[in-house]
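Sample 1 of the test manifest.
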Amino acid sequence: MMTVRIQTEDFDLGQELVSMRLAEHAKQDGLAVNNIGALVSFVGQVREFTNDSQNDGDNIHTLTLEHYPTMTEKALTAIELEAKSRWDVIDTLIIHRVGTLQPLDQIVLVAVTSAHRGEAFKACEFIMDYLKTSAPFWKKETTSQGERWVEAKLSDDAAKERWK
Amino acid sequence: MNINILYFARIKESVNYSSENIDLPSDVETVTALKNYLALRGENWANLFNGKQVIRAAINHALVDDMAKIKAGDEVAFFPPVTGG
């Protein structure tokens, strides 16, 4: 299964991972089975302080995420499909929050299950690298120095290039 | 031809609205031509669309490059490089 959820509300990390880990899949003989041997996940959270080359160490008060509805879901589904075509994974999940968040709030969850760990590790990192550079989200932070749009990072483009 | 244009993030703030429906002259057929056309609207628009800033475009929810063709009824979106995750 490939799941994409864009939401303002928080998610229960434990619950999401347990339901992926225990997910059963119908087989040709009609029996539901679980052949998952590995679950890899990534959680992104709002920092307490800015940490980049231009602005380092400013207190973050809020982080607001804007997105492009319709395109966001399409872009994330396309990334999951690409991951599935490259690696032998079972299920993929992307939850991305939008709206105004506070420091230490969860922003994003990517989780991947597979029979063996290698495929899930690779697919999870691939999904995050592509999400960072091709899904239409924009972050604006309010800090002790005022309000500003977060700049895209060259290192994120480089991370994506590795998978070409 | 008639299209819808959407603006996001800092571009939306700069032009001060999020969407518009517009009738384009017949010679505006690509993303580049549309950017040049919008740049004629005044200083604010020129600063955004004169090519000095990186502005990404999508047509009907798919990322495109500046050579992409625009058709009547398209939804064209302009936005800065993305920063999600």
